[in-house]
Amino acid sequence: MKFYLSMDMEGVTALPDYTYVNSSEANYERGRSLMTGDANAIIHGAFDAGAESFLVNDSHSKMNNLIAEDLHEEAELITGGVKAYSMVEGLDDSFTGALFAGYHARAGQKGVMSHAMIFGVRSMWIDDVEVGELGLNAYVAGFYGVPVLLVAGDDCACREAQALIPNVTTVAVKETLSRSAVKTMHPKKAQRLLREKTQQAIQRKQLVQPLVPPERPALRIEFTNYGQAELAAMMPGTELEQGTTIVRYEAKNILEAYRAMLVMTELAMQAKFC
User: Fold this and answer.
1) InterPro entries given for it (predicted)?
2) What positions carry a catalytic annotation?
3) What is the arrangement of strands in the sheet containing 238-240, beginning at the earlier edge strand?
């Protein structure tokens, strides 16, 4: 059995705000250590359940946050950017299941540090389904026929996962009080729970079906201001919907939609210089 972990940071145990997830902030090294601890707990749980191979993809910001020398030695690690598929780099149809941890709620929703890729995104849709990072990543996994077996993060991320993926195992390691405050489990207790729930998720993997994406999905991204939308709409094949800040792209498949989302958000970030 072969498993894939997309490891984000905002939903890691005990992290309440951006001072723990931004490399220029004072609490970042503590955040990295806690992130690595959560990842290790999940890796141990997978091997407890009979995993033969395990790949971790660092999925936060510059994607070089996990402390490689402290990671479980039987796991392989994808670290650094730029990566063509960002948070799902390396995922393909060879995996038995995908695990998402350190995840947060989508933009515009209650949840600690909730957002969708960049702060300039207000919302995203695949056809008529509103999604955040979690939903987009789950659709990519579904394209390859890989079910998302476990989602760990704050309580809001877990509820988002439950609404999208029937029978997914969720682990809420902290409760959102505000966008920058949480009531958290002790890291040691949370990591014991993550290990136990990972093992359970793998044992009941037959109950979870892949989140299959539409064959030719329409990606729509709503930006927070018109300048961001104008820049995103510079990508060939896009359409800026009249009277809105929504940019639309008709994709050949979810992989193309995902890469289009990456390009559009990168372009939109340049609006701060305009």
Assistant:
1) DppA_N, Peptidase_M55, Peptidase_M55_sf
2) 115
3) 129-131, 121-126, 218-223, 246-250, 238-240
